[in-house]
Design a protein that fits this description.
Keywords: Cytokinin biosynthesis, Hydrolase. It is an enzyme of class 3 (hydrolase). The chain is of the alpha/beta class. It is about 40% helix and about 15% strand. Helix 1 packs parallel to helix 2.
Length: about 190
């Protein structure tokens, strides 16, 4: 993998471990020569990952809609900042630039981005690895709801294999670099 798109909170959250995991992720990416693709903010966990990649000599590409790129939020030290017209264009651009995706802890925007790339994988739009950095068990409720949706017949069990999950950034990136897309069943059952 030459580039990973990170989805993460624009806040730091309530636990110091979230920030520490973001910093560790950025350091590992820079050490391994993996380019960071992300939303372009200098705030929160997003900013922490970007700062660490840059501080360790790595490349960082931010993608931000023009309406959000005021001087208060945009990171001023990026390798490249790409301005786009909309959130839809932002996500499409990040998707095209990335070889894989990792969700760090975050809020509604992070969830939306994560579920979009999971859905795109499920229906065959891409075969890129998707990772959950499960710091302090942050994503346990998400993993539980996905398991519940499998038990209730809304998601095929094979689709669990499109998610790589670890609380250790180094292990997660290694899992993603060895990722082989599962032989997907049809999302829709015959006769429905």
């Amino acid at each position: 993998m030459k580039s990973i798109c990170i989805f993460a909170g624009s806040s730091l959250g309530n636990k110091n471990e979230y920030k520490a995991a973001a910093i560790q992720t950025g350091k590992i990416m820079a050490d391994q020569g993996i380019r960071l693709i992300y939303g372009g903010s200098k705030k929160g966990l997003m900013g922490e990952v970007a700062n660490e990649v840059l501080m360790n000599g790595g490349e960082v590409i931010g993608v931000m809609p023009r309406g959000l790129s005021n001087g208060e939020n945009v990171h001023g030290q990026l390798t490249e900042l790409i301005a786009v017209d909309s959130m839809h264009e932002r996500k499409a651009k990040m998707h095209n630039l990335a070889d894989g995706f990792i969700a760090l802890p975050g809020g509604l925007g992070t969830f939306e981005e994560l579920f979009e790339v999971l859905c795109w994988s499920q229906i065959g739009i891409h075969q890129k690895p998707v990772g959950l950095l499960n710091s302090c068990g942050y994503y346990d409720p998400v993993l539980n709801i996905i398991q519940h949706s499998i038990l209730e017949g809304f998601v095929n069990k094979i689709h669990q294999k499109i998610m790589n999950t670890s609380s250790d950034p180094e292990e997660l990136i290694k899992m993603m670099s060895m990722y082989s897309p599962p032989n997907m069943e049809l999302k829709w059952k015959t006769g429905e």
